[in-house]
Automatic annotation (TrEMBL):
It holds the Pfam family Abhydrolase_1. This is Pimeloyl-ACP methyl ester carboxylesterase. It comes from the Bacteria. Residues 18-241 form the AB hydrolase-1 domain.
Length: 259
């Protein structure tokens, strides 16, 4: 446990070697990486963080901006006396990774964005965030269940129903303040596509063919004309559940060259 401005931050730290920092998505926590960490820690020092207002980490404010999350991460790596890290961020964790990369570029060795985007919310998406916040205030349990269900296709619900239910149960532990703070923070995040074009370190985006949250075409457009590697895999938004083996193989392959 790490104390950040009187806010408790939970994280795991295992293995030895170059540092890989794992960042989960909205309504997730560091346990989303539990099947991936044992493979990575054989070659790397692996740190998995519960972001502000998620998992066992406390809330810091009414809004958790991506910059707030990035500042917290920088304080953590400074406390651990780490110089450079390879960032792997899923969905919202990718937004945080990009904010960190913009604010603290000298500390990035490489970056993987998993089912994520460098683009800001569209006007329509911002409206939907506001609607979601109102639903959360009235019935957070119903919101969480609906939000998790919407991450997966009908086929996925048949194939990985146990994993989806486990994710739902974990997500239901997220405090209302944490849910709202994250929604507010994601809503106001800025465009960071320039990082895909001009940052010097190796970058990879992993996209799901049927991801309804981060559409494949959007990811293709963002990587076009850049040196960002793009891996397209079957499935939807939570690739670590739907395509765990493929995701792990891609991550290990990338880190062998760039980690």
């Amino acid at each position: 446990m790490f104390n950040y401005k009187n806010t408790k931050i939970s994280y795991s730290d295992s293995g030895k070697g170059n540092v890989v920092l794992l960042l989960h998505g909205f309504l997730e926590d560091a346990t989303m990486w539990k099947n991936i960490i044992p493979h990575l820690e054989k070659r790397y020092r692996v740190i998995a963080v519960d972001l502000l207002g998620h998992g066992k980490s406390e809330c810091y404010g009414y809004i958790h901006t991506m910059e707030d999350q990035a500042d917290m991460l920088f304080a953590l790596i400074a406390d651990l006396r780490l110089r450079k890290v390879s960032l792997i961020g899923h969905s919202m964790g990718g937004y945080v990774a990009l904010a960190f990369a913009e604010l603290y570029p000298d500390h990035i060795r490489s970056m993987i964005l998993l089912n994520s985007s460098a683009q800001p919310d569209s006007p329509e998406r911002k409206i939907n965030r506001d609607r979601a916040i109102e639903v959360v205030k009235k019935n957070s349990t119903a919101f969480v269940r609906m939000a998790v269900q919407n991450l997966f296709s009908a086929d996925a619900h048949k194939l990985v129903s146990k994993q989806i239910e486990a994710l739902t149960q974990q997500a239901l532990k997220t405090p209302v303040q944490g849910i709202i703070a994250a929604l507010e923070g994601m809503k106001i995040r800025i465009d960071r596509e320039a990082l895909l074009h001009f940052s010097p370190y190796p970058k990879l985006m992993i996209a799901g063919e049927n991801d309804t949250i981060i559409p494949l075409e959007d990811v293709k457009n963002q990587t076009e004309g850049t040196k960002v590697a793009l891996e397209i895999i079957p499935g939807g938004h939570v690739s670590t559940i739907e395509q765990e083996a493929k995701v792990l193989a891609i991550i290990i392959g990338f880190l062998k060259k760039n980690g």
